[in-house]
């Protein structure tokens, strides 16, 4: 009986000790940006989850400094604005990244750190529920601002749409192209006709007014041959 109780206590002590040790093994955790340097593309990051000590007291960890921020690509890359409060995932390297940050390639490992908080990298874009994107469209690929008032959108029906909140540009699946703002519009139809504020230019170059008068074939009224000025055009 005593032997069984002693074994149980030892197992509990080992589990507790292992649990305390594993708390210092960093893998991945959500967080947000405090500051960002666009020249070095490094940020100061705040871990987004409280830690709990052996006395069950919760506390926030100190910010992590000089954290590389992820921008997808190589010779061609996607660049996006990073502001304070930007949420994402903090990844922790299994080895010290100090040498790699300075030189790239296959770098020296100057310090024997393993899964350490100092070897963090930040992947923006993971969002908590209060910060989900409004008006999310599960359709193709859209690059946009958070409010959704500015975007470039490749849709899954083969159309393309762009909007900056002032002017809008659309390419429809059949190739029709439309651009408009509050003052006017132009449209290139799939058959090659061009429309601009009610004026139509046909594929063969004829210009047709909003009232249907062709500038190639129209006739004028109230005129005889000579030096008179003609009246208004007629169909």
Can you tell me the residue ranges where pLDDT is under 50 for at least 5 consecutive residues? none
Instruction: Return the structural class.
Output: mainly beta
Measured distance between first and last alpha carbons: 112 Å
Return the CATH topology of the largest domain.
OB fold (Dihydrolipoamide Acetyltransferase, E2P)
For the secondary structure, the number of strands is 18
**Continuous helix count:** 2
Determine the fraction of residues in helical runs and give it as a percent range: 10-25%
What order do the helices and strands follow? HEEEEEEHEEEEEEEEEEEE
Question: What CATH architecture label of the largest domain applies?
Answer: Beta Barrel
The biggest sheet, with number of strands, parallel, antiparallel or mixed sense and barrel status, is: 9 strands, antiparallel
Strand order of the largest sheet: 8-9-10-11-12-13-14-15-16
């Amino acid at each position: 009986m005593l032997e069984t109780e002693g074994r149980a206590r030892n197992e509990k002590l080992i589990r507790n000790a292992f649990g305390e040790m594993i708390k210092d093994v960093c893998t991945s955790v959500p967080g947000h940006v405090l500051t960002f340097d666009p020249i070095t593309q490094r940020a100061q990051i705040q871990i987004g989850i409280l830690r709990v000590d052996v006395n069950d007291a919760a506390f926030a960890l100190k910010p992590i400094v000089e954290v590389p921020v992820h921008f997808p690509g190589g010779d061609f890359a996607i660049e996006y604005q990073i502001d304070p409060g930007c949420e994402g995932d903090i990844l922790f390297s299994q080895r010290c990244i100090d040498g790699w940050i300075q030189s790239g390639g296959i770098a020296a490992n100057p310090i024997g750190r393993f899964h350490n908080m100092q070897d963090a990298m930040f992947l923006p874009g993971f969002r908590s529920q209060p910060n989900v994107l409004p008006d999310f469209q599960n359709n193709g690929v859209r690059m946009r601002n958070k409010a959704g008032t500015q975007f470039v959108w490749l849709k899954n029906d083969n159309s393309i749409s762009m909007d900056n909140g002032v002017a809008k540009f659309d390419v429809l699946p059949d190739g029709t192209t439309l651009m408009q703002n509050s003052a006017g519009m132009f449209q290139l139809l799939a058959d090659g006709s061009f429309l601009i504020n009610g004026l139509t230019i046909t594929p063969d170059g004829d210009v047709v007014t909003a009232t249907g008068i062709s500038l190639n074939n129209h006739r004028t009224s109230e005129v005889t041959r000579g030096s008179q000025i003609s009246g208004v055009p007629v169909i």
